[in-house]
Amino acid sequence: MNLLNIFPLSSSSILLLIILVFLIIFFINGSSTRSSFNAPPSPTPLPLIGNLHQLDLKNFYKSLVKLADKYGSIYTLHLGLQKCVVLADYKSMKNALADQGDIFCVRYATASDQSVSAKLGMTLSEGEMWKQLRRFTLSTFRDLGLGKNSFEEKIIEEAEFLVNVFKSYNCQPFLPNEHLGVAASNLIAMMLFQQRFEHEDEIFKRFFKVLEKYNEINATEMIQILNAFPFLKHLPGNHKEFIELHNEMNTLIQPLIAKILEQLTEGDVRNYVEAFLVKQKEEAGNPGSYFHDKNLSRLILEMFAGGTETTAVNLQWSLLLMVKYPEIQKRVQEEIDQEIGTERAPRMEDRKKLPYTNAVIHEAVRFANVIPIIQRSNIGDTYLGGYFIPKRTWVMTLLWSVLRDKTQWEKPDEFNPSHFLNSEGRFVKRDAFLPFGAGRRICPGQSIAMMELFLFFTTLLQKFKLQAPAHVTDLDITHGTGRILAPKPYKLCAVPRQ
């Protein structure tokens, strides 16, 4: 039985129906292609699917780089029924996020974002909610001593735990990623709950595994297609698992919040969650308050996601690169030995005395490029590079291209610590070093992340010679796939230095 038997139509009706379908497709697709006057150039889109046929959804950022080579550093891309503008160099990113920071001041919420967030927390909220939550978070961090000696001591203590874990392998090969993740997560847990977890804690390990899986699914082809065709959220697919993992993470943190609530004393705020709960009580009579349970849960998940995996992955890259380039590792260790010695723990005040080590850390972050794309949107009509960008345009800033911009870096595709050293061997900052974004939406934890990277890295290099397992003749430093670009899984041997 076919449709014509169910719905008998004349030949003229069928022709009219076909024309109508094509008109609908043309209207849907054409409305997105017939952009405003002087819009950025675009590869020719197909009806309905746009430019999806030209993209490798498993290596999405690489497809954007290739299109930038052909269409320029500012171009339009059609993702199914969605249209976005891609910024693919330092100049265009600076123009948008820094010079026009008051315009490009919101995060674009994709369909996958909306399925788990509903514009809560700091990442996706905007307007007054974003202002209040960000102001509260930054002031609370300051009050708790983040960026000061008290938090530095916590990092040093966690680095010591990490050293003991590495020693426990007795020079045998091991995967460092889980241990680096737990160390980074523990620092977030200390900020949020004033509690650290052992590396073998089953609940904490489960949370980290769920977070890894959550980020992995967030970069799958199905999620990319969902963002192109939001109506597909009603169909089966791994986007359902994406929501389930988000809900599981939320469930895992609830007992920690409940425990703090039971012990809450308003006169002695010791962690972020306590500060939030105190603020929540203060605003109990305000029906429009942003300090409610859903925002608290979302903020906790954002801080774990933003402060755990990116720090851990940057550490993975840093250690891998030291194994790959033993001559650089040796030079770092010689500088540490000369300026700090082998016994005293490295401190932030040592950074000025370790210009080469500092350059290696920054170059590892640049080369790793762990977050290749950030999403933004503009709250008003504006121009970029002479092109008109209508209000509420989906803007993809390609950080990959910024950190590998040939006009900003001498050897952009190589691991080269000299990018951050002058002719006298002193550390120099680079304007295009923007791994945390720029403008009003820059990551609020960037200074904390760089502090963690410096103290973890210098401590591990002070204590161990890192090398590949005996059977490994060459290490792969090509990037993996995903929303966060971790290196391909590798094992290393941590040999205690005498």
Spell out the key features of this protein.
alpha+beta; 50% helix; 7% strand; 17 helices; two-stranded antiparallel ribbon; single chain; 498 residues; 8 strands; four-stranded mixed β-sheet
Q: What's the short version?
A:
This protein is 50% helix and 7% strand.
Helix and strand arrangement:
Blueprint: H1 3-6, H2 11-33, H3 60-71, E1 74-79, E2 82-87, H4 90-99, H5 111-116, H6 127-143, H7 149-167, H8 177-193, H9 202-217, H10 221-228, H11 238-262, H12 272-282, H13 293-324, H14 326-339, H15 355-368, E3 373-377, E4 382-384, E5 387-389, E6 394-398, H16 399-403, H17 446-463, E7 464-467, E8 493-496
Parallel strand pairs: 2-6
Antiparallel strand pairs: 1-2, 3-6, 4-5, 7-8
Helix pairs in contact: 7-8, 7-17, 8-13, 9-11, 11-13, 13-14, 13-15, 13-17
Mind explaining what this structure looks like?
Helices cover 50% and strands 7% of the residues. By secondary structure, the chain is an alpha+beta fold.
Q: How far from one another are the termini?
A: 81 Å
- β-sheet strand percentage: 5-15%
Count of extended strands: 8
| Strand arrangement in the largest pleated sheet | 1-2-6-3
Largest sheet: 4 strands, mixed
Number of helical segments with 4 or more residues:
17
Instruction: Output the radius of gyration.
Output: 25 Å
Estimate the helix proportion, in percent.
40-55%
Low-confidence stretches: 1-12, 26-36
